[in-house]
Hints:
This protein has helices spanning 2-15, 28-45, 85-118, 154-160, 162-167, 176-189, 225-233, 266-275, 286-292, 333-338; strands spanning 18-21, 48-51, 197-201, 237-241, 255-256, 278-281, 296-302, 316-319, 321-324, 329-330, 353-356. By secondary structure, it is an alpha/beta fold. The strands form 3 sheets. It has a 6-stranded parallel sheet. Strands 10-9-11 form a 3-stranded antiparallel sheet, with no helix packed on it. A two-stranded parallel ribbon has the order 1-2. α2 links the parallel β1 (18-21) and β2. α2 runs parallel beside α9. The radius of gyration is 22 Å and the shape is globular.
Amino acid sequence: MYRWINKAFNYFNRKSPILIQTPWPRNIGNCAEEIFFGLLKAKREGKKVLFLVHQHELFWRFRLPVANKELFQIESDYSISNENLFGHLGAWLITAIFSSMRVLYLLWHALNNKLWRVLPQVPTARPVFNYAYTMPTIGVSGLWQPDSVTFFSWQIVETLKWRQQFDEYRPARLRKDKHRYSEQLRMEMGIPLTDWFVCLHVREYKPHADPEFVDYRNASIPNYIEGIKVITDAGGWVVRIGDKSMTPLPHMERVIDYPFTRFKSELMDLYLFSQCRFYIGSSSGPYDAAVLFGKRQIGINITSWSLGFPIRKGDLALIKHIYSRSRARFLSVKEILDEPFECQSFFSLSSDYIMLENTSEEI
């Protein structure tokens, strides 16, 4: 059923001057990434894109989480507002269709899991949970490849001219009323409109929050203190992005530990991304939000150089150090890039490798 729905919308998107897309709402990074590439697709096809998100939450485990609803309200030269009758009707249609399908899939998956446990003699593999069947994914399949192309070809990649698309990208922006409101909060926060600031995000994901994810992408905020001082000594401010589960920063002049302030909100998150002079982060979701607003990037403690690596020429990155157990030594950058994919750690890391953070001096 999911495939048929997506095929129907893909056909509509090919024929219509408006592209319908439902960016992945569960994580801010995935959502911002799909919006970014949706805008690129609309530009290269000479169309406009309409981003839809479901209108209400379900209950219990059937909830359809949205990491940042303000992402669906941003403006662009290549998008149309969903704050109109067509947008609201489309969102309610998406809600009606996918809420019922989500409930049915989750119940089916729970039943399969139960049968697998009580009937171990049945020669079938344990059912794997697929997030793609629990949320709408309309318009996603065509973001990175031309329509109807089902194979990989470097020639096709070259025709898409990704470098040119990135260089010519016009950043998304907040609505004027939301921007003005956020400016007032910024001044209350203590950052004058005449001063510049940078956003800093240091991933400290808690394993207990989601056992399926590992902690290789985490880093230690104390290693960044000296780097923070370099920025403040140059006259800038540092706004630390994240949530209250993170390790609080020590008190420092011109540094705002934003997650622990009353100003923390979905809208203010996006305002800070959109107005910072540049963004400092790692292989984690907020990076994609900064890309969406066209911000320059400094990547630190990067663990995946094929996913989540800065995409614009002139951006900087430090990858984590890789120690090979089998060779009993650290690998050079060239060796790291020549290693198998298991040397990277976006989802998993081979047992042969150990990742070590960048030092305070390197940062």
